[in-house]
Prior knowledge:
single chain; mainly alpha; 2 helices; 91% helix; 0% strand; elongated
Amino acid sequence: MGIGKKSKNIGKIAEGKTKESVGRAVGNESLEGKGRAQKMKGKVKQAVEKGKDVFRH
Length: 57
């Protein structure tokens, strides 16, 4: 996996966690849901990249 894609995916996961936490803290369900979705999107992309690495080696 390229280091650029890995760090980008980790950034998406971290940003999603932050949005989820802030949404929960202020009681904004929409922001919390968007954060959860963004976090999952980052995790899925991370898993896809790891899958690509398995087939490369």
